[in-house]
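User: Please predict the structure of the protein below. I'd like the answer in structure-token form so I can feed it into my own downstream comparison script.

Assistant: Understood. Taking the following sequence of 160 residues as input:
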Amino acid sequence: MTPPDRDRASTLQPRQTDHRPGVAGNERLTALTGAILLILIVAEIATIANVRALMSMHVVVGVLLAGPLTVKTASTGWRFLRYYTRHPGYRRKGPPRPLQRTTAPLLLLATLVVVGSGIGLATTQPGTLSPSTSYTRPASWPGGCSSAFICSPTSGGYRG
């Protein structure tokens, strides 16, 4: 009767198939953060169609993007660091696909420029958040938000 009890006990505990809880946890964190970012990015893009009327919502969603973007960048950077410092668990997981390895720097840079310039515009031009105010871009932000957004979809398939 001992073997069935042992089987029952093993089903009650979470199973770790790869014996790499750090790698699996990092992968789950990256995937969950990516899903949250996807929802927020879709909401952000939806506000672009009528950005003058939805400027406040556009800014709020843009600021909300900063937190998950930081977590996603950190978790992906951690995997990168652990893989290239030859940590056994991350080495067994393997490197990212070649397309991801080549497009990741462009996507990261474009995303940081889009979100950073948007937050910079919102903080340096507080009067432009109301739809009735005419929007003038300061000379220190020459199209960063718009031009980086155009680059972002080119690497949209990257999953970390």
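That's the full token string. The CA atoms of residues 5 and 11 lie 10 Å apart.
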